[in-house]
Amino acid sequence: MPGRIFILNLHGIGTPKRELPASEQRVWLEQARFEAILDYVRTRSDVELTCDDANESDFTVALPALRARGLKARFFLVADRIGQPAFLSRNQVEGLLNSGMEIGSHGLRHRPWAALGKCELHEEIVQARNRLEQLASVRIDHASCPFGSYNRRVVRAFRNAGYKGIYTSDGGPAQPGALILPRNSVCNTWTLETVKQVLSDEVTPLRRLLRNLKLAVKRWR
After folding, report:
1. What is the SS3 assignment for 49?
2. Run of H or E residues at 92
3. Cα-atom radius of gyration of the chain, to the nearest Å?
4. Which residues of 132-149 are buried (b: 16+ CB within 10 A; e: fewer)?
5. 79-104: per-residue pLDDT in tens?
6. Residue 6 Ramachandran class (φ > 0 left, ψ -120 to 50 alpha, else beta)
C-alpha cells in the first residue's frame, strides 16, 4: 500500500508515580523496552510515534530518549490533568514544544467519547482544545480517542470543529493526511519481534478485508 505509515502509540514509561487503573497497567512500559523500540524504529521512515494521557514520564523519560535518537513524537494531552500530581506541568508541556515535539488533545477528562451526550462531547472536543491552546499558545487540530472510543457522531463533531486528524486505537497501517488515523497501542507484553511483526502488517487478504469491514462499521454506526 503506497504511502502508508504505521503509528505506534505509547503511554506511561518507567516507574508509575500513581496507582494505575486496570486499563493502563497493560500499556505501561519499562524504560528499557521503550528505548529498545526507539532504537529499532529510528531507521524506519514509515513509523510515527504518539504518546497519550499526559503522564509526567512523557517529559522525564520519553523526551530525553527521543531527543537522544533524533526522533519526534506527538503528545496527546488530557486538559484536566495538566498540573496535577504525576502528570505534566505547564512548564513541561512548554518543554516538549520547545524541543520540537507536537501536542494534540486527548479530551478534557479522559472519557469514552462514543458514550457521551452532546454537551459532554462538546467539552471533550471543543473546550479541551480551547484550554490546551490557551495553555500552550499553539494551534491544536489533532486529537486521539481515549479508550479508542469513537463512532460516526464523534467523527462528525470533529469535522464540525475543524480538526484535521483523529487518532484511534484500531491497529494496522494509516494513510497520511486521512482524517481517521489508526494506531497500534504498544503493550508491556510486546517483544521487539512483536513490534517488527506489527510494522510488517503481514496479514492474509481475508484478514485485511475483515479489518477494513470492522473499521467501516465502527465509523458509520
Report:
1. strand
2. helix 90-98
3. 17
4. bbebbeeebebbbbbebb
5. 999 999 999 999 999 999 999 999 99
6. beta
